[in-house]
Amino acid sequence: MQHRIVILGAGYAGAIAAGRLARRLRGDAQITLVNAEPDFVERIRMHQLATGQDLPTRPLSEALAGTGATLRVARVTGVDVDRKLVTVADADGTDELGYDTLVYALGSSVAHHRVPGVAEHAHEVASRPGALRLRARLQELEAGARVVVVGGGLTGIEAATEIAESHEQLEVALVARRGFGDWLSPRGQRHLRKVFGRLGITVHEEVDVARVDATQLVTTDGARIPTDVTVWAAGFAAHPLASATSLTVSESGRIVVDETMRSVSHPEVYAVGDAALAPGPGAEPLRMSCAAGTPMAWQAADAIIARLTGGELPNMPLRFYGQCISLGRRDGLVQFVTADDRAKPSVLRGRFAARVKELVCRGAAYGVFHPTMYPARRRGRSSVSDRVTAAA
Ligand SMILES: Cc1cc2nc3c(=O)[nH]c(=O)nc-3n(C[C@H](O)[C@H](O)[C@H](O)COP(=O)(O)OP(=O)(O)OC[C@H]3O[C@@H](n4cnc5c(N)ncnc54)[C@H](O)[C@@H]3O)c2cc1C
């Protein structure tokens, strides 16, 4: 029997891992990619979708075309890493998929941080359905309506600026738990404040939201911020399925992996993207991001291939180079960072930075459909089938 590789989730990380494995192992392994939707969702553009921009449809079948790999459009409902079985459900019912190697890439969703009222009253831009719901809601608002974005991180900043630019008639505010943009360089912070000023976005700094109601936010010190629409962008939470398995996961539910993206508890399981807690170049693990998820996927695929074929393990350093932040369609900020994601003094700003960010987004989607563009180490001499036969 051929070696069976099942990849769960076809976001940036899962789709790249699947495509790379499928192209490099063509015919030597049975590869199945499971995803809830038939299309690849450009999650880093969800704030654009929410503000009325249309994104191209990108069928996942094209990412696997000609490789012999199978795309299974279904919802993963269970993972049993002890029996090496995945349960999936679709319109026809449930099914079980056995695997020899599993790549877990189910991503993340918006983190509610157990704040009461978020689930009932807030919108989000972390998923396509959420972005489409917000889009419809923004379109029905009257001039002067208040939109409050909660979250002073990259997603909150991108969402607030995109909304303010595309819906000039609305009153947009952003609530940040810490100092506004305080992780950026002084130049970066100055530019951020300038753009927020130009777009008329009110910033509430060092404010912790304790409760979300339909018409107001209540802060931990009892203040009230009136709102007509709340957009919750206060971070991401890992997909919950991993925590229900015997895999070693972090407190936040991310699968703990080594430098090759292999689970520290189950050697036949790999995890990539937001679902994985992977060692970064400093003391901190890699931040949940597309910027980290893409090289994680390359690393995982190459490590799986190396282990199956007797090749050399990949040792690409996983590191950051910059934070590319869109500030609407006409402005942006590229904050250069150290390998461990701390701001350097240098930045790119304005229209040029917006163009760089657009190229980064296009490049990320291009990478999904061209998963072998980053070269791997030489493949080992023996094929997977030889190796499996030798092991039997
Ligand atoms: C608005 C916004 C802007 C962002 N901008 C940036 C940016 O500029 N730069 C950056 O680096 N990062 C950015 N990010 C973060 C980035 O989008 C994520 O880190 C990245 O998408 C993670 O990739 P992933 O493949 O791990 O997960 P995801 O992209 O979340 O993909 C997970 C996949 O799993 C599928 N799935 C989930 N559950 C199931 C299930 N039960 N069954 C079957 N399939 C399932 C989903 O349909 C999806 O296809 C942004 C995020 C948002 C929301």
Side by side, the strands of the main sheet go 3-2-1-7-19
Outline, from the CA principal axes? globular
Strand content: 25-35%
Ligand names: flavin-adenine dinucleotide
Number of alpha- plus pi-helical segments: 10
Q: What does this 3D model show about the protein?
A:
- The strands form seven sheets. Strands 3-2-1-7-19 form a five-stranded parallel sheet. It has a five-stranded parallel sheet with strand order 9-16-10-11-12. Strands 4-5-6 form a three-stranded antiparallel sheet, with no helix packed on it.
- β4 (75-80) and β5 (85-90) form a beta hairpin.
- By secondary structure, it is of the alpha/beta class.
- α1 runs parallel beside α8 and α1 packs across α9.
- It has ten helices and 23 strands.
- Bound molecules: flavin-adenine dinucleotide.
List the helices and strands and how they pair.
Blueprint: E1 3-8, H1 12-25, E2 29-35, H2 46-50, H3 60-64, E3 70-73, E4 75-80, E5 85-90, E6 93-98, E7 101-104, E8 108-110, H4 118-121, E9 122-123, H5 128-140, E10 146-150, H6 154-166, E11 171-175, H7 186-199, E12 202-204, E13 209-212, E14 216-219, E15 224-226, E16 229-232, E17 236-238, E18 255-256, E19 269-271, E20 276-277, H8 290-309, E21 322-326, E22 332-337, E23 343-349, H9 350-369, H10 384-391
Parallel strand pairs: 1-2, 1-7, 2-3, 7-19, 9-16, 10-11, 10-16, 11-12, 18-20
Antiparallel strand pairs: 4-5, 5-6, 8-17, 13-14, 14-15, 21-22, 22-23
Helix pairs in contact: 1-8, 1-9
Flavin-adenine dinucleotide binds at residues 9-14, 34-37, 41, 43-44, 46-47, 75-76, 105-108, 125-126, 155, 158, 239, 273-275, 288-291, 293, 324.
